[in-house]
Amino acid sequence: MSGIDLSHATAVTPLPGPQWLALSEAEKLAAVNSLFKEKEFAIEAVSANEKADVTVEISPELDAASRGEMLREAEMVLKQHIDESLVLWLPTETDRNTIRRFRGVSIDVKQER
Fold this sequence. Notes:
The protein has 113 residues and is of the alpha+beta class. Helix content is 36%, strand content 13%.
């Protein structure tokens, strides 16, 4: 064995239930944001789809040490109260480090003599 734990590789992923699928995107967002507000999470859902993906934005005042724990707790609450298939996602962002953004870019330099 290569040392990779495959015990969860065959786990069944829950599919969205009929109640979630029946909601419009606006209704999904309203339900999720209402629960976030009730539980006082510093998160706002900005999109939700029929595949149970919920994209959220985190309050900028929240420190980095608290983000992960709050996101795990928020996802657990969503699974318990709305639909067990829901998964939280953060929007992708461009890397702010200009050196890392140039990785893989080749620049041809012609030397003049």
